[in-house]
Amino acid sequence: MERRIILDPGQWIAFMVVAVGAMIMLGPFYFMFVFATHSNTDILSVPPPVWFGGQFVANVQVLLEKLPYFWNNLGVSFYVAIITTALNLFFCSLAGYAFATYEFRFKNLLFMIVMSTLLIPPFLGMIPTTLIMTLFGWMNEPRALYLPMACSALGVFLMRQYISSAIPRELLEAARMDGCGEFATFRHIVLPLTGPAMGTLGLITFITSWNNFMTPLVVMRDMEMYTVPLALRALQGSGQVPWGAICAGSSIAVAPLLVIFILASRRLIEGMTAGALKG
Amino acid sequence: MASLQLLGVEKSYKGGASIIKKLDLFVEDGEFVVLVGPSGCGKSTLLRMIAGLEEVTAGHILIGDKRTEGLPPSERGVAMVFQSYALYPHMTVAENMGFSLKMAGLPKPQVAQAVERAAEVLQITHLLQRKPKALSGGQRQRVAIGRAIVRQPSIFLFDEPLSNLDAALRAQMRLELAKLHKQLGTTMVYVTHDQTEAMTLGDRIVVLNGGHIEQTGRPMELYERPGNQFVAGFIGSPKMNFLPCRVQASSERGATVQIGSSPRPLQIPAPSGRVAGEPVCLGVRPEHVRLTTPDQGIPARVDIIEEMGDVAVAYLHVAGLERHLVVKTPSSAMGFYEGGQVGVAAELECCHLFNQQGVNLSLG
Ligand SMILES: Nc1ncnc2c1ncn2[C@@H]1O[C@H](COP(=O)(O)OP(=O)(O)OP(=O)(O)O)[C@@H](O)[C@H]1O
Ligand SMILES: [Mg+2]
Fold this sequence. Notes:
The complex is a heterodimer of chains A (about 280) and B (about 375). In chain A, about 70% of the residues lie in helices and about 0% in strands. Chain A contains 14 helices and no strands. Chain A is globular. The model of chain A is unreliable at about 275-279 (pLDDT under 50). In chain B, the strands form four sheets. Chain B has a six-stranded mixed beta sheet with strand order 6-7-8-3-9-10, with helices on both faces. In chain B, strands 13-12-11-14-20 form a five-stranded antiparallel beta sheet. The chains are: A mainly alpha (about 280), B alpha+beta (about 375). Adenosine-5'-triphosphate binds near residues 19, 37, 40, 41 and 43 of chain B.
C-alpha cells in the first residue's frame, strides 16, 4: 500500500532544521573526502572544489613521503584500539556485574567514586600520566596507551545499568542452583546475555581509542610509535601545509570506523536502549 | 529422596525486622507440603533459605540427616522452580534442562539421555531444540519443572510455579504436578496463594503468618478444625464469615450467642465454661449457611448475588451487622432475588467460636 506522508508547516520547519543541521555536521566530512582527491593548489583556489578529483594516489604519495611510518602508525592505532577494547569489555563487564548484583560494603560510595572520575577533565591527567609512564619506563610503548584506558567509568556504568535491568535476579539464582560458582555464572549466563551492551561498549571504546589524541601526544616520542591522529598532526608542522595529503590520511584513518559503524550501527542503538526497554 | 527439618530457623535482614521467627518444621520423606500465607509473610524467604540462596540467621536446616550450613545450593540435593521460570534465554530447552548436569561435569551423552528422559515424562520432547522465547507460558513451566527433574533432587522446591498461567492451564498443570509427585515420590515443598492448589496438592498445609507457623495439618483438618481465626479466614473460599457477638449463656450443649440484633439466638457447640457477656466471634463458612424463608432463621436482606453457574454467592445484610454475611448455595436452590427478604440458618456443628485472641474455642 502506498501512502503519502503529508507534513504540516510545523513539521516542515522541523524537517528543514534537521536537514540543515545534518548538512553542517556532514559538510566537513564530505569535504575531507573531496579534498583527499585534489592537489593543494586546487584546494586553495577560490571557489574550492566541491566534487571528487583524481589526485588521491598522488596525495597518498605525498603523505608517505612526509610520513614514512604512516602504515606503522596505522598499525599502532589498530593494536592499541583493539587491546583497549578487549580490556575494557573484560573489566567493565565484571565491574558492572559486581555493582549490579552483589551487596558489599561501601558499594554505593565506590560506585560514586567510579562515576566521579567522569568529571575529571582528561588533560588534568596529562602530567601525572607522563610521570608515571616515565617511572615505569613505558614511555613510547603501546601499553602506556592501553593500560590507563583498560577500564572506563562510562563502561562500568553502562554495563551495570544493562545487567541490572536485563538480567533478573532469579536467573542468577537458578544458575547458582544449577551449580555455577561466581565466575561460571558470569561466563555462562551474564556474558551471553549482555551482548548488545558489550557491542555498544566495544564500539564506543574502539572509537574513543582510535580518535585519542591527548594521551599519545604526551607518551609517544618517536614518529614510529605515533598513532594516526598524532602522525597527521605532524604534517602541519612546517612550511606549506599539504592539505590534500592530510585529507587523504584522514580519509584512510576514518575508513575503519566507517566500516565498523555501518556494520554495527543498528546494534549500537539497540544496545543503548535495550536495557531500558526490557525493564 | 530425603526428609527436611527446620530447627528454630530465624531470618532477619541487616537493619530490618525479623522476617522468620523461630520456626520448626519437619517434612517427611516423600511428603508434599504446601506453604500458604499472606503476601510478605516470608514464604519465599523460607524456601530460599532451604535452597541455600539465602543465609540462615539462626537455627539449622537439615536435609536428610545432613546439616546444610555452608553448603552451596547445588550440593544440597534440592531443585527449585521459580515463579518467573528463570529459564536461560540464550539456551535451547535441552541446554536449559541439561545445564546443571553439564556444570557437574557429566559427559555429554549422559546429559542428553537424562534430558531426554525428563522431556518424555513432561511431554516436551518436541520442544527440546527451541529457545524459551518461542514457548508458551505452559510450555515454559514444563521446561522449568523439567530442569528441576533432570537433577534428580531429593527435595523439590516450588515458589508459586503456576501463578503466571491462566486458569485452564493452571488446573491442568496442577493435575500433572500431582501425578508427578505420585510418580517420583520425591519430597516437595510448594508455595502458593491459590486455595485450590493448597487443598488439592498438599499432603499437609503449613499456614504461615508474619514469619511464624499458625497451624499445620492435613487440608481437611485445617478446613474443618482451624486452630485460630487467622487460619479459619485463610483456608476456604469465599472466606469464612466472622460475626462479632456476645455469649448470652453457656451450658453443656454449647454457648448461646446472638447474631446482630436478631431475636433468634444460636446455640454453638463449644466446651462449657464460657462466661455470659464474653465478647466472641462466630465463624461460619459461606457453604455452611442455609437460606430459608424470612419467618424461619435470622431475617436478612439479599444485597448482591454472584452467579457462578453451579453455585451462587449471595451477600446478605443482617440487621445489626456491619459487614455482609456471605452465603454460598447451589444455584438450583435459588429461590431468592436481589433486594428480597430471606431467613438465614447455619449448620451449627460447622460453626466456630473464637475468643478475643482469635483462639478457636469450639475445638476444646
Ligand atoms: N533483601 C531484603 N531485605 C530486606 N527485606 C527483605 C528482603 N527480601 C525480602 N524482604 C522482606 O521479607 C518479607 C518476606 O518476603 P517474602 O518474599 O518471603 O514474602 P512472600 O511470603 O514470599 O510474599 P509473596 O506472597 O508476596 O511472594 C517481606 O516483608 C519483604 O519485604
Ligand atoms: Mg514470594
